[in-house]
Protein: DUF4186 domain-containing protein
Organism: Bifidobacterium aemilianum
Amino acid sequence: MDQTARVAWCQEMLDRLGRSKFRASFSLSPKDRAYARAKGKATIDRHAHEMLAKRIGPAHPLKDGKQTPYRGHPVFTAQHATGTCCRGCIERWHHIPHGRPLSREEVDQLASLVIAWIEQDLTRHPSS
């Protein structure tokens, strides 16, 4: 997927996720917003890739369905908001079956969505 298609896909997914009362209920804490701003997009993007690959990427993740905390890092909150928190949600929202490892392309795509959600949250809550 090229960059233009990925941006369009992320926006379409954010719109779709925003219609879910549960997914739309998430927002970053002030502490997580400050952390994301201080670290910058490149670092948070690296964290997203690492967390998705390690925690969600395996065919049968350890404690699947419970491996993603609800707070403690901006990526964790974003994973719940974007349906990338467990393989069940990834299958439900992104139609990627569990039982096989995520490909590098799938991790890249899901990380792009996580970053797009974080950027959207930061835009909606400007720093003071």
